């Protein structure tokens, strides 16, 4: 495990953006595993800057996203497909046909099988970017009694619904179910980059990095990954941790 502790969110975005950019430069046809949420937005801005300055070429890049809300179509502004287009894909020369997000509108059971097969057919994920839930979730793998393996549907916990409600007009609008890559899918990525910012992530991050490995804190399994980089700001990783 490699831990990069930086001062603030801006620095985190720069460092995470640089690691993603390095992956694309070293392997132009990388399969990137991407995340939504607030934390990666700054890193995506750095990728867009890299493209605009002519340093980055996304032509051969493919991507698979971690998750999607059930019931939302890709044109819904609250969907994760919409988010990815808006925050990254619309601003770089990636072939959108080769960017994949689980479908929130397909029949869920079949979509889970299709998504795992798709990732396998791409040859797996080269670099998986992960944010961290306040309850230690990764993707939408919420605390539970087992580590779910493949792509599956999940009922979001109350804490996740509350955390995500800031992006919706009201908490009732937050979908109650999502489709997410499973823990095995995530752990099979060749490299993992976990990013965490802000004091509200400090407890989950500390437990994830130094606590027991348990499905009650899904991110704790990342301790077992052989190529994990963590970029965290000072608020998320106080020196005392
Ligand atoms: C998003 C995802 C989630 C988020 C996590 C942190 O695709 O899978 O696990 O990474 O909820 O979200 P933010 O970055 O908004 O704090």
Describe this structure in words.
This protein has 241 residues and is an alpha/beta fold. Helix content is 30%, strand content 17%. It is built from seven helices and ten strands. Strands 1-10-9-6-2-3-5 form a seven-stranded parallel β-sheet, with helices on one face. β9, α7 and β10 form a beta-alpha-beta unit. α1 packs across α2. It is globular. The mean pLDDT is 96. Bound molecules: fructose -6-phosphate. The site of fructose -6-phosphate (F6R) has 14 residues, from loops.
Structure at a glance:
The protein has helices at about 10-25, 40-50, 80-85, 110-120, 160-165, 185, 200-210; strands spanning about 1-5, 30-35, 60-65, 65-70, 100, 125-130, 150-155, 175-180, 190-195, 230-235. By secondary structure, the protein is α/β, with parallel strands linked by helices. The longest helix is centred in the N-terminal third of the chain and has 18 residues, at about 10-25.
């Amino acid at each position: 495990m490699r831990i990069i502790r930086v001062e603030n969110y801006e620095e985190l975005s720069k460092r995470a953006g640089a690691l993603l950019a390095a992956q694309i430069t070293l392997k132009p046809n990388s399969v990137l595993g991407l995340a939504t949420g607030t934390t990666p937005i700054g890193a995506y801005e750095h990728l867009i800057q890299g493209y605009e300055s002519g340093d980055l070429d996304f032509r051969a890049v493919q991507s698979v996203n971690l998750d999607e809300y059930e019931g939302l179509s890709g044109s819904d502004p609250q969907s994760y497909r919409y988010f990815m287009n808006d925050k990254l894909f619309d601003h770089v020369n990636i072939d959108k046909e080769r960017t994949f997000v689980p479908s929130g509108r397909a029949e869920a059971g079949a979509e889970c099988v299709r998504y795992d097969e798709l990732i396998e057919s791409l040859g797996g994920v080269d670099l998986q970017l992960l944010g961290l839930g306040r309850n230690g979730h990764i993707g939408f793998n919420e605390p539970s009694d087992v580590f779910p393996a493949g792509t599956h549907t999940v009922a979001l916990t109350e804490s996740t619904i509350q955390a995500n409600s800031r992006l919706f007009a009201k908490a009732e609008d937050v979908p109650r179910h999502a489709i997410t890559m499973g823990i095995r899918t995530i752990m099979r990525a060749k490299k993992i980059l976990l990013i965490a910012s802000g004091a509200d992530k400090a407890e989950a991050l500390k437990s994830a990095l130094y606590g027991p490995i348990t499905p009650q804190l899904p991110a704790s399994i990342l301790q077992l990954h052989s190529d994990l980089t963590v970029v965290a700001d000072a608020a998320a990783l106080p020196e005392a941790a």
